[in-house]
Amino acid sequence: MEQLLAHLVGDYLLQFGWLARQKARNLLVAWLHGYIYALPFLFLCHATMSQYIAIAVLHGTQDFLLWNSVGDGKHMSGLEGGVTIVRDNTLHLLLNWVVLT
């Protein structure tokens, strides 16, 4: 449960508009988002520093690759967009679980 909460806080509560828009265009911005995203894992999951860095880099890289290929998503239908977001979140949760176990 802590991993899910850390993911939701990091990806939805701590991500502001500029990061969301720019992470698909710039890998450094995506990594900045990743490091901000991973902060709750330090507190809620007691992640080590190496786990924190791994989660941050994996998250930022995954977001950059996905959203760079999809763009702003405005061309996707509601179902296609929803499936993309569910796939994205599922992969984030799986990678976090691998790093933390």
Q: What does this 3D model show about the protein?
A:
- With 101 residues, the chain is an all-alpha fold.
- The protein has one domain.
- Helix content is 80%, strand content 0%.
- The protein contains five helices and no strands.
- The two termini are 14 Å apart.
The assigned structural class equals mainly alpha
Shape: globular
Radius of gyration: 13 Å
- What percent of residues are in strands? under 5%
Alpha carbon gap, first and last residue: 14 Å
According to DSSP, the number of beta strands is: 0
Could you give a short account of the major beta sheet? Answer: none
List low-pLDDT spans.
Answer: none
How many structural domains in the coordinates? Answer: 1
Our count of helices gives 5
Portion of residues within helices: over 70%
Give the averaged pLDDT, no decimals. 90
> What's the helix-strand series?
HHHHH
SSE diagram, text form:
Layout: H1 2-13, H2 17-22, H3 27-44, H4 49-70, H5 78-100
Helix pairs in contact: 1-3, 3-4, 4-5
Task: List the main descriptive attributes of the protein structure presented here.
single chain; mainly alpha; 101 residues; 5 helices
Give a quick precis of the structure.
With 101 residues, the protein is mostly helical. It has five helices and no strands.
